[in-house]
Amino acid sequence: MKALVLTPAANDVSIRELPIPEPRDGEVLIRVHAVALNPVDAIYAVHPIAEQEHRVIGTDFAGMITAVGPDLGSSSDLRAKIGARVAGFHQGACSTNDRPGAFAEYITAPYDLLWSVPDSMSLEAASTINMCGLTAAQGVFSRLGLPCPFDDQTATSSDDANDITNVLIYSASTSLGLYAAQLVRLAARTYGRKIHLIGTASSSKHDFLRQEPYNYDVLVDYRDPEWAEKVKAATQGKGIDRAVDSISEGETVYKVHSTLAADAKMAVFRGPKGGQYDVSDLRVKPIYGAARVFATKFFNFLSTAGADGKVKLEPNPIRLMPGGLGRIVLDGFALLGSSLVSQRPDTSRNEEYMRPISGEKMVYKIFSSE
């Protein structure tokens, strides 16, 4: 099979021929149909933290199960059935574990860290949900303590159900921001909470963000030098109760922090070193982290349709990129850059698909037919 492989010693990412992996106990083999790009894919290809001589890179994937591990032959779980359409993510090159990433024609994965993709959704669209959807859920529920529809143990908010909770999502049109807004609205509907949802985004995205399933109450242009003051004004001076910084880089952390009420909580998604901010400068300490048990609950939750038959999360708008595995580095990584979001390069390319990325998720087809 073909796979996109990082060789850190040679500072090289290229396609290589590798054996098709075999699923172990608790795992399934997946024929990958589509992969979605995340900033970490490009960052850790250039700045790897893993020690292996060679590492298959990539995070988000969707595909079809072609084989199951020795202990799953009699499993009744749809995510352990040959022919099932599933999606999930790996930590290819962005963790110190030795598991291969997702950018390959075939991959293995623990079945309980997958979700069942309904026939109504394309695998290309499904590939956009996995990592950012889970990360947003960890931020909204585990870190901010909003009531969670699939894990009662995460709810730590003591706000009265009749109180209005002011929630800010900075960079609302990013993949992470789009999922965070949906999850905030889901928490409000499920538990009857009153949420006043405020977001920052380019003004060109405001009409989109006011619509279902995001339904922002207030939107502010992040380019406005007074955006933080306008956010606070939207709370009648009370300040933000819960904040999600979808970028979590330097100045964004400080500016989001400046909008917070005294007893607020703030979720970030890059640590101080990677995000280049100093926690000692912050009165409200940002929260970040991850947990496998929460992940299994989240993916099981995604696998069940709502009472109306709809999926629990709407996928990101996608930008279908040409060329498959062979163009991920040349095109996709060129658009993402290998450093901070604020330092993304201008590719100066004329192709329509190489316009700056905003409000979309780049997706590459690996196998073209389902």
Automatic annotation (TrEMBL):
Residues 9-313 form the Enoyl reductase (ER) domain. Belongs to the zinc-containing alcohol dehydrogenase family. It holds the Pfam family ADH_N. The keyword Oxidoreductase applies. Keywords: Oxidoreductase. This is Enoyl reductase (ER) domain-containing protein. It comes from Trichoderma cornu-damae. GO terms for molecular function: oxidoreductase activity, acting on NAD(P)H.
